[in-house]
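Annotated sample (chain length 374).
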Amino acid sequence: MNRIILFSLVILSFTAYSQVDELQSRVEYKQKNFKLADYLTNNPFLQAKVDSIYAKMEDSERVAQLLMPAIGKYGQSEEVIYSLVKAKKIGGVLLLNGTKDQMSTWVETMNNLTKTAKGLPFLYSADAEPSLVNRKITGSTQVKKANEIATVDEVVSVAKTISDDLKEIGINYNFAPVLDMSTNATVGYRGFGANPANIIPWSNAFIAETQRNGIIATAKHFPGHGLVSGDTHKSLQIIDGELLEVPNYPSPIAEGVLSVMIGHLAVKNNTHYSTDGMPATLSSKIVQDLLRDSLNFKGLIVTDAMNMGGVAKVPNANVLAIEAGCDIVLMPLDAEKAHQEILALYLKDEVFKKKVELAAKRVIRSKICLGLMR
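Output written by the structure step:
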């Protein structure tokens, strides 16, 4: 009888240990295999992985995560970008204009360079909006422009087609869709605002399909470019009074959009959110108070291109964008100089250092959830 009891206890112990081992394996698996859907969750294993990676990085590489210059027509030369990759002074690259094959070669080359340098994998972005993608990426599958799309089913189909092309190239971050109203000549045709009632549901559909395909989607241009008359590529544009396009954003944020782009738009005659003549990109009232705190956005905040007329002449603009609460500085005029400026303040100002830390950790988190850190 004692032998039977002893044998039973051994079997129970073995079973218990097996269950513990299985549970441990599941935990380890969850720690290693995160998806985009995990980004906005309160997952302690994900946060622990982010913190662990950040703790092992040099200060210079932490700052680098915040910088995303462009390669291609209107961007930097291959020589300049490859040099920045080797030096681990940038965290991502915008593939601005080129053929599919050319872009694929850029991605492959930069992946090899950053692997050799033992740097973090890159965010590769594109302005792959329905209205721009076929011009920006030569040889991409033809799709209807945003203002030509007739149904939400077509929105989903277009988002899937674009995402398939981006994945083939190696692009993991799409600066689309445009949430602006259709009034503005520069951006109006690029969004779903031909019928204002479609902007929110169709944008949500585009975002959901894009992120379902493992690519970060971006709602832009916050707080709203559609009701101003001019072009922020050329000069700073002014929103006078109420922020009438901000109501386009709560729904996409609630639905889980992972990125928002800030436009170079000043706000005046607004009790809470006037920007004192500065672009929203450099205003903590817009980036932190409105987008982060009021709208409760937890994802990546990226500037519009910093070489645009609406911001390019502002002194120390790259540092000011981070101080305002942006996570990624897109297309700085000089990425090397931007890195130096941000790093210098990071090393001597504890408040600014904390902002860099939060931004870098959001970028690292996105890279983990894209599956780049396995």
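Annotation: The first strand starts at residue 67 and ends at 68.
Annotation: The chain has one domain: 44-369.
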